[in-house]
Amino acid sequence: MLRPALALLRAAFALLALAAITVQLLDLAAKGTLDPINYFSYFTIQANLIGAAALLWAASRWRGERSAALDWFRGAAVVYLTVTLIVFAVLLSGTDVDTAIPWVDTVLHRVMPIVLIVDWLIDPPLVRLTARRALAWLIYPLAWTAYTLVRGAIVGWYPYPFLDPANGGYGRVALYVCVILVGGTLLCLLVAGVGNALRRRLSG
Question: Which of 100, 148, 153, 169 is the most buried (most CB within 10 A)?
């Protein structure tokens, strides 16, 4: 009974995230303020899409054994949404990041990160995650940062104020990026370590 129930909850939260992203997109379109490229350039939106994909993938495997690839992807989603939760709370609370609808803001910045974290804790990876595999989770955020800074310099738009060199110059941007990178590295190792510890406890 537990596996079907977990699968249903995973699917339900994934659909909730997708609904929140869609409703906010339609609301911006109705107001005439939607730029689709900008909207899908937010780390929050991309991280939630990754989180929803991870939940749906895991839900689809409820009858069989999960693959190591799936657990690696789940771990990545945990890291990205945890970063979303922390960065939003510390740097972006009260900032307009195109999630003006209150329940959408709550789902994308608070609910989904907590859901992915809890999902990782109650159903840890089946195969041990090495530090090297865990640090590979950083590839996407680094690529996103490079894309954001290059595109921002071209089009004059940045998704978050702390990445906009107009707010203190590139030195300030570099400082924020380095701090988040160090924090992200530690977070990757923490998520993998916790998952491995819980895996050993459950298997033992």
Answer: 148
